[in-house]
Amino acid sequence: MKKRSRASAPAKVILVGEHFVVHGEPAIVLAIDIRATVTAEMRPEPGIHIESENLGVSGLFKGGEFIPERGGLEAKRDLEPIHAVAAEIISGCHLKNGVGINVSSPIPVAAGLGSSAAVSVASAAALCSLLGREVSSDEIFRIAFNAERIVHGNPSGIDPAISTYGGILWYRRSEAIRRLEFDIDLPLVIGNTGRRRSTGDLVAKVGMLRSRYPDIIDNVIRAGGEIVKRSIQALKEEDLESLGELMNIDHELLCAVGVSCEELERLVHAARKAGAYGAKLTGAGGGGCMIALAPPEKLGKVADAIRRAGGDPIITRKTDVGVVIEE
Ligand code: PMV
Q1: pTM across the whole model
Q2: 159 catalytically annotated
């Protein structure tokens, strides 16, 4: 058995299709090159000790109890998904000692970038490697997805899938998650509004609008599905200009169903004005993040424009690298 092991997994953005995916249409999700890193090591004392550097919380899970160290009892909520991953992996071993898990992640939390899933996936990989358990990517996905289910109720599974496999995924509720093999560079700027929001509330808001105006909203949803199909075509043809245009239309449809907000509008318009091919909110909306697809030489200018408009910019690109055991 190793003394220590380290693994990393990427964050995600939804390129197109959020919200309409809840109503049966497809969505395209990308892994981006911002990674959560998890180090797991053996500890002489029993129990699972977890520390998250970025959240500034730590504590020990031992015999069904949580003993907080930093962040008080509330730390339990943040650390629970990692504990669920660790508990499942350890339940199959006869460990006499304990394990320590350290999370280091630059992925903004509660911003729609899949930070929790990236941490769960990296934790599963680091722990399996520490305990000498040979696991496939499918098994890592399964463990991380189970943990997300325990903690977040009924998630779609797209977040742990993209963090595990990387690249570009096609997701539709009625179909299996599919990896799309496009060897294309997608230079992006993420703009974080810094405004926290609840995915559940925003999904419910769209649902309510649909039930009040089914004839209108059903057409918007269908148009959202068409955008995803046309975006696949643009990706195939490596036509970033059309992809940007489709992202712009998608954003306006998302406005129509009421999930944009003033902060997102400011960032989206600033990015377009600074020369992005296209810009839209990503994820649930109502705050959180937007993305801009831009020519590589304009990334800096778009990032500056987002900053001036009150957002926190991150220049990033699509990555094909999913979960990796680094040590
Ligand atoms: O912002 P996120 O990563 O929670 O994404 C939400 C995406 C939605 O389509 C709005 C909801 C869903 O379950 O697909």
Answers
A1: 0.92
A2: yes
